[in-house]
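Annex B. Sample input.
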Amino acid sequence: MESNSGVSLDRVIKELSLEQLVMPRSAETILITVARVNRPGLPLTGFYDYFEKERIEIIGKAEHLFLERESEEDRRRTLEAFFSHQPVAVVLSTGLDAPDPMVEMAEKYGVPLMRTQEKTSNFMAGLIAFLNMQLAPKITHHGVLVEVYGEGVLLLGDSGIGKSETAIELVKRGHRLIADDAVEIKRISPTSLVGQAPELIRHYVELRGIGIVDVRRLFGMGAVKEEEEISLIINMEPWQEGKMYDRLGIDEQKTEILGIEVPSIVIPVRPGRNLSIIIEVAAMNLRLKKLGHNTAQEFNRRLMESMGFDMNL
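Annex B, continued. Sample output.
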């Protein structure tokens, strides 16, 4: 597992269209390392016991009105104490003007000061969502990620098992490619994993005997997607004679990635098996389970009832 070391303030500025009021140095060199943000209500009253300078501080109408109601001397003292703690950045929301002497103190202590026209709650939601995505724990997995009927399906298996060829067949059948060979997986919430391709190989697929192909140009923009939540993991392995494979699907398997368990199945590969159709059925069956219909359990119940067992006991 690995985590991003940080996201540059420059990316935050561009993503959220922030106006720069004070920028003591290049925004590209300033790193945001935590996704948590703060409204400095208590700090402005002098309580700094739990102040985290790594957080972006957001000054909304309430904080702005508090400062406006202070005397000029008290406001200077309040702002000097606040900026002397050197928060990583300060943002004025709702298009508020910087009260005197906020700009002066930001310049004195080298704190970036910016402004947004967005309302405080909307801005905070957008900022937290962006930072959560950028700073999420991530890992790079060898595999192929495709979207099949709206479900993100991660194909795993040894090199040469046929993952890329299967992905191309799925694209030809109307589904979409997210990543081939290397999949960057991020944990964006306690229950969600999102996968995407490294930028260098995005939209490319390697086919042995042909080489690198550009899926976007060959099949059109509708054949690719930037990222997708991973809903199902399919482990592809060579067919082993004598091995007992699951034929009912009653026992649900899980694969853990970054601390999150994802439904998974094993598909044995041998000549003559149409893997793309099998994967389509697996994706549709997953959607059916999400709607509350587990075919394997329903079949098992009917089987047991036909044998005289009372399933209600």
